[in-house]
Amino acid sequence: MKYVVLFGPPGSGKGTQSENIIKKYGYGHISTGDVLRAEMANNTELGKTAKDYIEAGKLVPDSLIIDMLAKTMDSFADAKGVIFDGFPRTVAQAVALKDMLAQRGADVSVMLNLIVEEQELINRLIERGKTSGRSDDNLETIKKRLDTYNEQTSPVIDFYKEDGKLANIQGMGSIEDIFASICVELDK
Ligand code: B4P
């Protein structure tokens, strides 16, 4: 089974390309952002906690995210592959994922790192904010999310580089062209 980490800054196209991968490869999918938004919509305890972090452009604490992910891992037992979309976002999460997979005799197959210029990220998220209704898609929060990414999330790239799993993907250009580059990596 392939375990694929789909990685990149906010607005780099993780959710967009996950949909394409699911359609073509039939992999299972977990987006920590989607799960958190569902928890927020249902006003659960986790959702109420997550809301404050998300609206401040910060990361939800590792312990909550790791527990959340651990609960879903076994639901993928029969899948052909699994896409981790927006997870891990810290080195501690990357270590936790490695441990969770090792307990199942598995490991991450590849980390797809979507590379997109900062101004393009801002433009995409402002554009998405016009229709998404997402409380974190406004300029002030977008800038904080990018700072959070640069400080806490980008070190995850080195973690996977050292582990021999890093595949850089040019994330600027058409959704189709970017997906074609992703397929080259997944078909290896
Ligand atoms: P996420 O839901 O993961 O969202 P994202 O990073 O904003 O977006 P993504 O990269 O998926 O972009 P998309 O494809 O939609 O996270 C939200 C928040 O949840 C985080 O800020 C954090 O607070 C919290 N969170 C989530 N996971 C966490 C974790 N593991 N630990 C702690 N906290 C966590 O693309 C964006 C837009 O660009 C779309 O409108 C799309 O149509 C457009 N687009 C995509 N590709 C394009 C292209 N090639 N050209 C032009 N436009 C494109």
Describe this structure in words.
By secondary structure, this protein is an alpha/beta fold. It has a single domain (2-186), classed as P-loop containing nucleotide triphosphate hydrolases (Rossmann fold). Helix content is 57%, strand content 14%. The protein has nine helices and five strands. A five-stranded parallel beta sheet has the order 2-3-1-4-5, with helices on both faces. The structure holds BIS(adenosine)-5'-tetraphosphate (B4P).
Shape: globular
Q: What integer is the average pLDDT?
A: 97
- Overall CATH architecture: 3-Layer(aba) Sandwich
Structural Rg: 16 Å
Q: Please, how many domains?
A: 1
SSE-based structural type? alpha/beta
CATH topology: Rossmann fold
Terminal CA distance? 13 Å
CATH class descriptor name: Alpha Beta
| Count of helical regions | 9
Bound molecules: BIS(adenosine)-5'-tetraphosphate
State the major sheet: 5 strands, parallel
Question: How many strand units?
Answer: 5
What is the strand and helix layout of this fold?
Elements: E1 2-7, H1 14-25, E2 28-31, H2 32-41, H3 45-55, H4 62-73, E3 81-85, H5 91-102, E4 110-115, H6 118-132, H7 139-153, H8 155-162, E5 166-170, H9 175-186
Parallel strand pairs: 1-3, 1-4, 2-3, 4-5
Helix pairs in contact: 1-9, 2-3, 4-5, 6-7
Essential attributes:
single chain, 188 residues, alpha/beta, Rossmann fold, five-stranded parallel β-sheet, globular
